[in-house]
């Protein structure tokens, strides 16, 4: 089971990881975007960290809904609506829950992915965060089907997400600002996919009880 305390810790850790990698994300975005992904994400998740003490006692769905509204109102560009939608769908998938089973976790991950696809009108191969989130969901579902525990399944998901992230480098961008560059978008790692990878890896590290990710 994944409990409410772990969910709150995950959000704190992800915010810390984003702050640590803010310049890296901005550098990636400078190559194919507006050079503001790191700045925007850091601002949004600092806001999330600031509200967590006041919502930490709520059920998981309510926590996610508050995170969603905070991100939508504080992150500019495409990232706010996309991450806001991910957490809003996560909220719907976990309604009334104080802890999450493996099935709940799969539903959360799948719902978040579906929301991003619908909101961004994107698909696998477009060089977006979908190229990271989609293989992660597939890997998690397959691992659960093979009888793996939640942490093991999430390890498989994160490994698939990392492969998906690396696969964005040779892709031609078909969505967002990067798509305006045409062939010049080839050879650069997608910044949104990078932050999505850190989101999933942060969750894994919390469930493993590890604190190594914050400054990795």
Structure notes:
The radius of gyration is 16 Å and the shape is globular. Strands 1-2 form a two-stranded antiparallel ribbon. It has 9 helices and 2 strands, in the order βαααααβαααα. The protein has helices at 4-20, 22-32, 37-55, 60-74, 79-93, 102-120, 130-145, 150-167, 191-208; strands at 2-3, 99-100. The protein has a single domain, classed as Serine Threonine Protein Phosphatase 5, Tetratricopeptide repeat (Alpha Horseshoe). The chain starts with a strand and ends in an 8-residue tail after the last helix. Residues 5-205 form the DhaL domain. InterPro entries: DhaK_L_YcgS, DhaL_dom, DhaL_dom_sf, Dihydroxyacetone_Kinase.
Task: Report the strand count.
Answer: 2
Spatial strand order of the main sheet:
1-2
Straight-line distance between termini? 26 Å
Following the backbone from N to C, one meets helices and strands in this order, namely: EHHHHHEHHHH
State the fourth-level CATH superfamily.
Answer: DhaL domain
Task: Determine the mean pLDDT.
Answer: 93
Largest sheet: 2 strands, antiparallel
Briefly, what CATH class? Mainly Alpha
Looking at CATH, which topology would you report? Serine Threonine Protein Phosphatase 5, Tetratricopeptide repeat
Low-pLDDT stretches: none
> What's the architecture, going by CATH?
Alpha Horseshoe
Backbone shape: globular
The tally of structural domains comes to 1
Q: Helicity, in percent?
A: 55-70%
The percent range for strand residues is under 5%
Structural class based on helices, strands and sheet pairing: mainly alpha
Radius of gyration: 16 Å
InterPro entries: DhaK_L_YcgS (IPR012737), DhaL_dom (IPR004007), DhaL_dom_sf (IPR036117), Dihydroxyacetone_Kinase (IPR050861)
EC number: 2.7.1.121
Protein name: Dihydroxyacetone kinase DhaL subunit
Domain DhaL: 5-205
